């Protein structure tokens, strides 16, 4: 499909620079085949059914943004995918000043050797020393806010907490599964009281999720691979939900993409561990999920293409026109929506 079909006019002031406080006070647009309803995230239990199950991503964002020097040249690095115990694939700023085998000093006793430049312009960074890379990043790195936020204000101490979900357990993501930022213990108690369950899986979100679609046609765009895992016990419980007539509601596009990657032809979930580069556009047949909680995405983004595949492009164009007119807040720190297809 032509990428320009997924374009729309988004006023710059609709991009939220901070999350709602408290988090569960964010607005929520409920989208069903019979229409739209303006609610808040605290109303989520009323919009779902007893026996439904929300599926969250328990990845934890690491401080994957690094600033360093190679000699007198400033080098910026955004880690996006782990390739080994000490190796990360990274997008590099000022890459023209970097050569294979160069050492980059990121300060605080942290350095890495650059090698193996990829076709996408990324480099492998192999971190020096014996300390776990996670400890090195805690010293020298900062939270990797999406470009549309980082371009409007600097990252600060608040982001270290604001950009983690309550489910964050397994370190490895360089972007938050932002739909889950709306969830709080209070909201989870309401959901449990309403008979709505939840499960977690792991997808380490990569910086490739921020990359613009530069191709003119969706067939020519290539997604970056991300590592995910659904263990056998979790897959069994998810299948039991569906066998009882419950619905699987993905809490975020990251959970949705991993569930769909693990789905068998009959819609059941298989255990999964490995990379996925699934790219969902209109025409895709969903096998695993029955609904989606998600934020409002940017024009021509792969995520707007995904929600258009779920609900239909014309429907989502009307949904976003309503959201913009009704002053919903967009993007990572913005408001949420509940999408329930026919």
Automatic annotation (TrEMBL):
Q: Which domain of life is it from?
A: Bacteria
Which enzyme type, at the first EC level? transferase
The residues forming a coiled coil are none
Q: Which GO terms describe its molecular function?
A: S-adenosylmethionine:tRNA ribosyltransferase-isomerase activity
Q: What is its EC number?
A: 2.4.99.17
Q: Which reaction does it catalyse?
A: 7-aminomethyl-7-carbaguanosine(34) in tRNA + S-adenosyl-L-methionine = epoxyqueuosine(34) in tRNA + adenine + L-methionine + 2 H(+)
**Record's subcellular location:** Cytoplasm
GO terms for biological process, alphabetical: tRNA queuosine(34) biosynthetic process
**Coarse class of the protein's main subcellular location:** cytoplasm
Cellular component GO terms, alphabetically? cytoplasm
Is the keyword Cell wall biogenesis/degradation assigned to this protein? no
Keywords, A to Z, come to:
Cytoplasm, Glycosyltransferase, Isomerase, Queuosine biosynthesis, S-adenosyl-L-methionine, Transferase
InterPro entries for this protein: QueA, QueA_dom1, QueA_dom2, QueA_sf
Q: Pathway of this protein?
A: tRNA modification; tRNA-queuosine biosynthesis
Q: Report the PANTHER family cross-referenced here.
A: S-ADENOSYLMETHIONINE:TRNA RIBOSYLTRANSFERASE-ISOMERASE (PTHR30307:SF0)
Q: What does the subunit section of this Swiss-Prot or TrEMBL entry state?
A: Monomer.
Q: What does this gene product do? A: Transfers and isomerizes the ribose moiety from AdoMet to the 7-aminomethyl group of 7-deazaguanine (preQ1-tRNA) to give epoxyqueuosine (oQ-tRNA).
Which family, according to the similarity comment?
Belongs to the QueA family.
This chain's protein is named: S-adenosylmethionine:tRNA ribosyltransferase-isomerase
Organism field: Sphingomonas chungangi
User: What lineage does the source organism belong to?
Assistant: Bacteria, Pseudomonadati, Pseudomonadota, Alphaproteobacteria, Sphingomonadales
């Amino acid at each position: 499909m032509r990428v320009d079909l997924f374009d729309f006019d988004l006023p710059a002031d609709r991009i939220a620079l901070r999350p709602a406080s408290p988090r569960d006070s964010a607005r929520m647009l409920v989208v069903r085949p019979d229409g739209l309803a303006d609610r808040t995230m605290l109303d989520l239990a009323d919009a779902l059914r007893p026996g439904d199950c929300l599926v969250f991503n328990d990845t934890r964002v690491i401080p994957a943004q690094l600033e360093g020097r190679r000699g007198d040249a400033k080098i910026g690095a955004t880690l996006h995918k782990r390739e080994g115990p000490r190796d990360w694939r990274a997008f590099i700023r000022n890459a023209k000043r970097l050569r294979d085998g160069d050492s980059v000093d990121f300060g605080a006793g942290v350095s890495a050797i650059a090698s193996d430049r990829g076709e996408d312009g990324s480099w492998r960074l192999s971190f020096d020393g014996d300390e776990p890379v996670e400890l090195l990043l805690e010293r020298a790195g900062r939270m990797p806010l999406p470009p549309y936020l980082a371009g409007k204000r600097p990252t600060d101490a608040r982001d270290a907490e604001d950009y983690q979900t309550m489910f964050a357990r397994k370190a490895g993501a360089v972007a938050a599964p932002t739909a889950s930022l709306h969830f709080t213990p209070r909201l989870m108690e309401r959901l449990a009281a309403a008979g709505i369950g939840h499960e977690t899986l792991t997808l380490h979100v990569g910086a490739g999720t921020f990359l613009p679609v530069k191709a003119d046609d969706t067939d020519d765009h290539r997604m970056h691979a991300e590592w995910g895992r659904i263990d056998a016990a979790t897959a069994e419980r998810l299948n039991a939900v569906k066998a009882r007539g419950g619905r699987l509601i993905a809490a975020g596009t990251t959970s949705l993409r991993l569930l769909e990657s693990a789905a068998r032809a009959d819609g059941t979930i298989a255990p999964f561990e490995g990379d996925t580069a699934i790219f969902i556009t209109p025409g895709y047949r969903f096998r695993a999920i029955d609904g989606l909680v998600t934020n409002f995405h940017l024009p021509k983004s792969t995520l707007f293409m995904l929600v258009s595949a779920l609900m239909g492009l014309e429907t989502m164009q009307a949904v976003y026109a309503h959201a913009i007119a009704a002053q919903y807040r967009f993007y990572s720190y913005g408001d949420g929506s509940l999408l329930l297809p026919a």
